[in-house]
Amino acid sequence: ASQRLFTTSAVAGFLDIINFSNPAVPTVVTSVDMNSYGGVTSVAVKNGIVAVASPNTDETLNGSVVFFDTNGVFLKQVTVGALPDMITFSPDGTKVMTANEGQPNANYSIDPEGSVSVIDISGGIPALSQANVTTLLFTTYNSQESTLIASGVRKLKATSTLSQDFEPEYITIRKKKKKAWVTLQENNAVV
Fold it and tell me: What is the DSSP letter of 2?
């Protein structure tokens, strides 16, 4: 409807909005500097709402989802888990989900837990608050580590818990069943 593309430039830290009404000559409408929010990893658009996954400048800390309109005007920001890596809307447009990778720092002295955040936007973006965000951790799997590893789940760091080791990468949502599947790429698993 907007005839716009919404793209990320993670290295530069920008959300670019591109007019492609004439596909032969796409033009940049505007670029939103996401560095002031921490950065950018992923963007999703539905019903005139642009949702951007933004890691914290220190990627081991909780990141955020920043909402804009299709012109790049800021609407709201909420906190999600560490290093939101992928963002998507539910098919009905009432929820936004992020796969929060929770990557450790280089020497594993900080190893945040991977998680998935679910943001309920059914009340509209103007009414959105942190109370509409639920972040799901994988701590219940810590006690099942031996069984899961025996079944083929891969654990990368022996001294980490499974919930620290799980690094959600990608989400897909089934339209009718209201279920989401999340890949744990490094762990050779899906939840």
Answer: -
β-partners of residue 11 are none
Cβ atoms of 68 and 74 closer than 8 Å? yes
Identity at 186, one-letter amino acid code: E
Cα torsion 111, 8, 94, 99 to 10°: value is: -20
d(CA 12, CA 1): 28
How much is the mean pLDDT over the chain? 96
Dist CA 180 CA 167 (whole Å): 16
For residue 104, is pLDDT > 90? yes
Q: Supply the pTM of this predicted model.
A: 0.95
Pair of tokens at residue 57: 């400048």
Longest dimension (CA), the chain: 56
Beta bridge partners of 82: 62
- Burial track 49-58 (b if 16+ CB lie within 10 A, e otherwise): bbbbbbbbee
Average pLDDT over residues 68-88: 97
Q: Residues 44-67: what's their mean pLDDT?
A: 97
Q: Is the pLDDT of residue 177 over 80?
A: no
Give yes or no for a contact between 66 and 72, defined as CB atoms under 8 angstroms apart. Answer: no
pLDDT number for residue 60:
96
Outline where the chain has alpha helix (H): 145-150, 162-165
